């Protein structure tokens, strides 16, 4: 374990809602995908995972009642002769498979050795948020380069941080009344319950998230409610924790609002620290797990059958990355993107990342009759818009 005393922290109200999702929207994992050129030695990767986990205890957590406790086993490293199944990633047996090696595992690392080498960090959302996953992956890459990983020993998640910094007001009411850009569709057993898609945009620059929000609103009847996760670490830059430290900023957007106005809307919300108030809305999870499951099933039915959702979409930007900062001996990354977790509570979950002047756009979508062609058409429009509006990298900007 990490030192002489096991790392432990309380399971937060936010995290409680994620446990039923493992059953309702499997595998309910965030996944950081790093394709590249070259090879990674499996034994070197296992050693790096051990080194990184020693100072990143959030990667070794198991649930014990109302607490997360650091276990004595490092995250599993699985080596698979496999190539990702583009474009319909929801049919890929690896990224849609359960985490291993046991049901209580929360983090694992995959090394795919198919036509090209791909590294995948898989994380149960109950133990980390997206930025925590990025921190964990960077620590493993540091260890692979022979560098010291950065310790993240703080047993702090959203509840403790919000209690420390305070809330500015009341939470945004959660009412299932919002439409979505792909409409509604009755779910059938012969259809995959969720779709998982990835697109790469030849261009990158500021404003990508606001532009995506603007187009989603333009494609949605009535006012859209976009949920934008906000990293709470901004309120305490000294904090070193991989736990769930993200709360939503809700953006209500009418069709036709320009992306620059949405960008100002985001700035105002961040300035007012509105995301901190949303922790209060997670208290609904302080009920038995069967009740949580029933609420989530009802939420899914309202969205799929009636088109009434708690939010129109979630849109996250996970950051900007370069080849140089991610390269390790023998392996040169050619990209980085995030596969969002599936959800029965949200119709669309978009993830954005920027890599060497390109933008990767991914989405998990609740499936249903007619949803797939509408989703593909929406992605076509999003890609066309972003490639028209974002600067395209010049040959001189490309890594050699």
UniProtKB/TrEMBL annotation:
Identification of the protein by name: Condensation domain-containing protein
């Amino acid at each position: 374990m990490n030192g002489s005393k096991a790392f432990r922290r309380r399971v937060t109200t936010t995290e409680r809602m994620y446990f039923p999702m493992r059953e309702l929207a499997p595998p309910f994992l965030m996944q950081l995908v790093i394709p590249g050129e070259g090879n990674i030695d499996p034994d070197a990767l296992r050693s790096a995972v051990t080194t990184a986990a020693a100072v990143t205890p959030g990667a070794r957590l198991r649930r014990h009642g109302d607490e997360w406790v650091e276990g004595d086993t490092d995250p599993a490293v699985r080596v698979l002769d496999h190539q990702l199944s583009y474009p319909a990633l929801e049919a890929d047996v690896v990224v849609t498979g359960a985490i291993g090696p046991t049901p209580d595992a929360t983090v694992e690392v995959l090394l795919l050795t198919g036509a090209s080498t791909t590294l995948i960090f898989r994380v149960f959302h109950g133990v980390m948020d997206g930025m925590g996953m990025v921190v964990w992956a960077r620590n493993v890459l540091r260890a692979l380069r022979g560098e010291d990983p950065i310790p993240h020993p703080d047993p702090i998640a959203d509840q403790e941080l919000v209690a420390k910094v305070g809330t500015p007001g009341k939470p945004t009411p959660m009412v299932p009344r919002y439409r979505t850009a792909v409409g509604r569709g009755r779910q059938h057993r012969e259809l995959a319950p969720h779709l998982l898609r990835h697109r790469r945009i030849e261009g990158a620059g500021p404003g990508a998230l606001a532009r995506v929000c603007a187009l989603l609103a333009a494609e949605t009847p009535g006012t859209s409610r976009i949920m934008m996760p906000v990293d709470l670490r901004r309120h305490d830059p000294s904090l070193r924790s991989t736990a769930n430290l993200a709360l939503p900023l809700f953006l209500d957007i009418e069709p036709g609002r320009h992306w620059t106005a949405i960008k100002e809307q985001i700035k105002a919300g961040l300035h007012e620290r509105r995301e901190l108030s949303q922790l209060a809305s997670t208290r609904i999870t302080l009920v038995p797990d069967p009740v949580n499951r029933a609420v989530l099933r009802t939420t899914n039915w309202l969205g799929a059958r009636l088109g009434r959702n708690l939010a129109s979409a979630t849109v996250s930007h996970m950051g900007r990355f370069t080849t140089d900062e991610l390269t390790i001996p023998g392996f040169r990354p050619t990209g980085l993107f995030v596969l969002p977790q599936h959800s029965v509570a949200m119709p669309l979950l978009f993830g954005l990342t920027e890599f060497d002047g390109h933008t990767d756009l991914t989405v998990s979508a609740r499936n249903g009759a007619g949803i797939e062609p509408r989703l593909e058409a929406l992605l076509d429009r999003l890609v066309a818009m972003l490639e028209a509006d974002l600067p395209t990298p010049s040959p001189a900007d490309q890594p050699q």
